[in-house]
Amino acid sequence: MIQVAALYRFTPFPDPEALRAPLLAACEAHGIKGTLLLAREGINGTIAGSDNALASVLGHIRKLPGCADLDVKYSNAPEMPFHRMKVRVKREIVTMGEPDIDPTLSAGHYVDPHDWNALIADPDTIVIDTRNDYEVAVGTFAGAVDPQTPSFRDFPAWFREHRDELLDGKKKVAMFCTGGIRCEKSTSFLRAEGIDEVYHLKGGILKYLEHVPETESLWQGECFVFDERVTVRHGLEQGTFQLCRACRRPLDAAALAHPDYEDGVSCPACIDERTPEQRAGYAERQRQEALAKARGELHVGAVRKALP
Asked: Which pTM value belongs to this model?
């Protein structure tokens, strides 16, 4: 089994570019693959490899400023879920587009996974899923509000537009996301908007699915993850969805059986979003990938950028 480590830390990095090359070298030296993002506000990413290799790289990360007590969420995969190693410097480690938000100063109240059910069952609580629409479609908590936003950058505008109806008769706001990072910013954003009773699921959905027994769970469906596993279920076991290689959306059995689905080329969700020329390019990429696989090689060009 391959071990997968999801991590993030909000901490000031005055010069993130100076951290990039040594971090990439450490990952490559130990055969680690995945993606790590660096910004002036901290680090975020998911990486995978052997237990010992991950321990070495995480040791390197914990020596970065403010990362000594880095929290890491572990899971397993039957095979390497990434094709390469990328370390990138970004403006934000999770893009919200609100430059004045600082989670290190004003994040919401953490809620342990074992206490989450009681909070979201409270009639005084409004529960909001902060993830993107294609993630929510795979699974969410019972009764959660779906913002139906294609990108996390759209969340602030959505909340401001619907604030009054969302908070009508509610005293508490509980928010959740995959691993916790988006909630660090979304709860900080709500507090900046003048809302004090804001809570978020510590460790995100991944920590909940890891620690809360399925018999006690309020989670419905599977959880989308940004790697080749596509989705995970309770116990962080690999899920049942596959990935559209054209748009990177998760596909269930019905989508895979749809006439608009063509492996590596299109799916019902993106058939009208791509031109015939684009689909022809995808078909050629798929052909080249099949040829590389027949030769026992990895066709790296088949790996496409995920949705924002």
From this structure: 0.89
